[in-house]
Amino acid sequence: MILEAFAEFLHKVPELPANQALSAWLWERLKNPAASAVDQVIHCEVGIGRHSKLNQSPNLNRSRKIRLPQEAELAIKSQTKQASIETGAEVGYFFEGTSASGVRLLNSLYEYSMSYEQQKWSRFVHGVKASDFKLEQ
Q1: How confident is the model at residue 58, as a pLDDT?
Q2: How much is the pLDDT for 81?
Q3: What torsion, rounded to 10 degrees, do the Cα atoms 74, 5, 112, 30 define?
Q4: Could you tell me which of 100, 13, 110 has the C-alpha nearest to residue 67?
Q5: DSSP-assigned letter for residue 131
Q6: Which sequence spans correspond to the domains of the chain?
Q7: Mean pLDDT per 10-residue section of the chain, whose length is 137 residues
Q8: Is the pTM of this model over 0.90?
Q9: DSSP 15-81
Q10: Count of beta carbons in the 10 Å neighbourhood of residue 102
């Protein structure tokens, strides 16, 4: 059910790389009140964590790090009044599982997005002919 909802979103934004589409989709689900069962699961299982280069803890749960979209990070930083103190690459905000099932959910969504990206690439390469690379002299 969740993968199906994400797949529908991927088809609506073919210009975005799949990892950016995943980030945008998760952000849309979390910033709005839960309107469906999919949204309720996302709200329950996915949270937003802050990580800095100075204070990196070992990732014991083997969760994929999916960074928030840039506009989401800016919104969070402006709300927490840390935009002037911590900017740029020092601090990043990431989606993270709030439980073991949330970690599995994020990992599955990430793997699905990468397989979708590979499928797009495969279709592109399949359509390329050797004559497309012919140099004119």
Answers
A1: 46
A2: 60
A3: 30
A4: 110
A5: G
A6: 2-119
A7: 93 91 94 93 92 55 79 81 51 89 94 91 83 73
A8: no
A9: TS-HHHHHHHHHHHHHHSPP-SHHHHHHHHHEEEEEEESTTPPP-TT-PPPEEPPHHHHHHHHHHHT
A10: 20
